[in-house]
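Troubleshooting log. The previous structure file for this entry was overwritten by mistake, so regenerating from the original sequence record. Sequence copied from the archived sheet and checked twice against the printout by T.R.
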Amino acid sequence: MKFTCRFLKSAYTFPQDAKLSDGPSQFPVQSNDLPSAYRTVRDSYFPTAIRASTQARSRSTAIKGLGPVVTKGCWFKGRRRALTRPLRSLPTPDFRALFESAPGFYLVLTPDLTIVAVSDAYLQATMTKRAEILDRGFFDVFPANPDDPGATGVSNLSASLERVLRNRTSDAMAVQKYDIRQPESEGGGFEERYWSPVNSPIFGPNQQIAYIIHRVEDVTESVRLQQQGVEQAKLNENLLSRAQKVEAEIFLRA
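Regenerated output below.
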């Protein structure tokens, strides 16, 4: 007689001499207060006639020649330990370390735009140090370039952050020219940079905005290549125009 456990997904063939006899309770075939999983196993193996014939017997019923088949919390003796062993508890990840090591440019702000976390990649890209920018206002750390009166990076980013707080949704910005201040050890001043920023809200338990994640991509090289391409196209156009002009003058002289 073969019995397949629906939960263990494995088959077990009962010995031919297996039969019901009074003994220690190993398989409570008449207990209706068992979990549904146990009742499924009981009803799958014991035919109705056998169950009816055992109703007059003691509720302590075993299968002679088979030994313990079902015990509390397990169906098979050999699998009991594996099934009843508690799950191994996993260590809690160090999320700050994970965030700081993330391979992207991330910075976390409070709603008043105070810097509270930053990734290592962001620090490297902006030539800053974590201890020098944490707990400071974003625009105090990254001010506008005073040598570029037409710079709009600060005003555009400020407007984007205000939209995040007002609309409670992410705000993706167009490419921004936002120059970065260089350390005094590297000569000071500002270095021209172009960024592609996305600002996203993070909600707290009360569904209020607790943080804003400021994520950027440094697209400076891409913009410079585009600018070089435009300049080269203009140069080619000027050369073509001059060549056509010279050709026309030669034609008129002829």
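Residues 95-219 form a domain with the Beta-Lactamase fold (CATH 3.30.450.20). Archived copy saved in two places this time.
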